[in-house]
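Researcher: Here's a chain I'd like modeled. Treat it as a single chain, no partners, no ligands.
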Amino acid sequence: MAEKYDLIFLHENEKDIYGDIGRRCKEILKEVGPPSFKAIFDFANFVQCGEDSQECYDLLKDDIVYIHIKDV
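Model: Modeled as a single isolated chain. Structure tokens:
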């Protein structure tokens, strides 16, 4: 349906959801699949989950279309 209407749906890594850490974000993106599903990357949310933000960015960079910038 997204492709039919030229839409892109986005997943943001958020604390306390299944897609909170890099590996699970990658799993979700792979299962749903581009081009109609991409990622919002939030460095601070990865930090809150105890993840290394740079490692997560490297893992997800090909699917990221929007970045949240804030402090934590």
